[in-house]
Amino acid sequence: METRFQRVFLVSLMLGILPTFSATVLAFNVDDMVPTEIERRDVLENILDSENFELGAQIGLLSIEDFESNLWVSGHFAYHINEYFYAKALYGFSKAGTSSFEKLVNVPPLLTNEQRKLKYYGLNIGYNLLPGEVFLSKDIALNSMFSIELGGGSTEFAGNNQFTINLTANYRLFLTDWLTWDIAMSDYIFDTSVTGENKTTHNLNFTTGIAFYF
After folding, report:
1. In sequence order, what are the beta bridge partners of 22?
2. How many CB atoms lie within 10 A of CB 213?
3. How far apart, in whole angstroms, are the C-alpha atoms of residue 44 and residue 120?
4. Domain range 53-213, CATH architecture
């Protein structure tokens, strides 16, 4: 009986001592691990790119209604108002080929060489849509952006200056944070009476080029 009582006493004593002992060891270990004085480090925040200006050049084809498809060269300067909207000033030129009427009927040329030169200058407002990524491989991905533009300007063609509406769909692939590869489809809409009939023409344009951001 005395032996059993001693065992119960020893178990109770151990149960009372072990938690205190464990807490003391835990506190000792935590105090040991955490320094009393934390050394502060200077952390430099990432500076986001803030290039709001864009300068680009394109080359492609312009299908001048009734005058074949012809080489097109253009340049633009743009200001990005925010992440969605931008304003773009555009200048482009081409030279009309032979009209279908001139090919079918044996008549003198409708236009002189100087009148066949087509020049356009105008201003567009663009809106960025559908930001995404293009995966060139499992380890290489490039940012991309699809945008639409609406604008107006003036087309000098056949000795006349015509008000022109411009509709453009543009796809940009960001090669770096300051360089893009652009692919665009445009429609230049203006009135003409070169063939003797007053009509509204749709002159489709396909271009590709690069743009620099600064």
Report:
1. none
2. 19
3. 47
4. Beta Barrel (2.40)
CA distance 134 to 127: 20
Over residues 173-179, the mean pLDDT reads 95
User: Among candidates 137, 131, 135, 194, which has minimal Cα distance to 162?
Assistant: 194
Position 50: which residue type? Answer: S
Answer left, alpha or beta for residue 66, where phi above 0 means left and psi between -120 and 50 means alpha.
left
CB 87 within 8 A of CB 79: yes
Please write the tens of the pLDDT for every residue from 185-214. 999 999 998 877 899 999 999 999 999 999
Q: What six digits make up the tokens of 75?
A: 């340049």
Structure tokens at 67: 């005058």
Tokens of 191: 């009135």
User: d(Cα 164, Cα 150) in Å, to the nearest integer?
Assistant: 11
Read off φ and ψ for residue 136, nearest 5 degrees.
-80, -30
Give 184: exposed, middle or buried? Use CB within 10 Å, 0-12, 13-18, 19+. Answer: buried
Per DSSP, the three-state class of 47 is coil
**Residue 138 per-residue DSSP state:** S
The answer to whether 92 and 59 have CB atoms below 8 angstroms apart is no
- How many C-beta neighbours within 10 Å does residue 137 have? 6
The mean predicted confidence, pLDDT, of the chain is 83
> What is the rounded distance in angstroms from the CA atom of residue 116 to the CA atom of residue 162?
14
